[in-house]
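Need tokens for this chain, all 439 residues.
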Amino acid sequence: MQRYDWNALDAGQRAGVLRRPAQETRQTTAEAVADILAAVRSEGDAALRRYAERFDGGAPERFGVGEDEFDAAQASLSPQLRAAIDEAAERIRLFHQAGMTQPYELDTAPGVRCERVLRPIRRVGLYVPAGSAPLPSTALMLGVPALLAGCREVSLCTPPRRDGSADPAVLYAARCCGITRVFKVGGAQAIAAMAFGTQSIGQCDKLFGPGNAFVTEAKRQVALIEGGAGIDMPAGPSEVLVIADAGAYPDFVAADLLSQAEHGPDSQVILLSDDVGLLDAVDAELEKQLANLSRADTARIALRSSRSIRVDSIDTALEVSNRYAPEHLILALRDARAWLPAVEVAGSVFLGDFAPEALGDYCSGTNHVLPTSGAARYAGGLNVASFQVAITVQEVQAHGLEAIGGCAMELAAAEGLDAHRAAVAIRREHLRQGAGSRA
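Here are the structure tokens for all 439 residues:
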């Protein structure tokens, strides 16, 4: 990791230090993704097959996963892995069910009833990465809240393996969430297929899920195209920021940094500390632990664009973190909870030495689909409300119109909108003439 002293940097250098690697190649990525979207939109399945040959090493005989494949996938998993998936699914359900938004209604004036009702988004598309590493946990993070929301049509896309099959653990996790429409398609082309529809894959109203820079850019673009789909949030290359004091365990911190660096070469990890000794100890631990990682080569590439930063105080570290707006924030601090009020922006926070980010990735219960690339400044993590639309309703009785109609007419006149004013005035005149309301 590159070492910096925050106090020695000017404003421009500080901005450079906090720049994400994906931001440096955004234009090239955007152009490549635009070509993929256009091809899938015009050619449908033919384009999907061409891109599968190019990116996945071969196209599956059929994109859709059949019931026989679900059965075979379930049978191939060890009882221990099935139990772990079931256990994680239950914790995720408990957490998300407890936080579900509730409808409400009240009378804002006599005869004026206002309501907010919730409806599930009808057609949702879920993306589960499996390019460099299959992520059955993502199928749970997306599928459980979609199930709780009551979405009627749920499609899931995941990249095929070299033999053209889908990852068995991903399929089992999908089945746990009641998802039967699973397609072996990955990358930006999967986002295009769910956004616009193809011969095999139905068009979706909103898309969900994390992915690499190409998947994230594809989501951004389809959300801007007429006839495209809405998206949950920018959920791109993984990132973690760790704030550690002199009392932190260097091996814990190094493990947390590597757990994100191993996601992909475009991941980024940042360590902030006011103790040089801690920074040095973590550097040594990184080298030691890298030697035992199966994905060490991927992690080393990610570490090249990662940062180890000395700050003058933990207060400064929190200021830097709030500026960076990390996807994951680990507070490896003494009395970590006392520092929580200073956290203004973050996708998910992990308090103390014994809260590794990996628990949030898998089974603590919170969602690991989180805003990246600084989007934590304005967006939160995935939840059941992400899969719902809220509709407001107003029911007005005749005496309710009399009660608040004058207010509406006055405001309409101030805005110069005569038809707005008349829509109220005509009804009030009918009431004054005794016409009343019709059944």
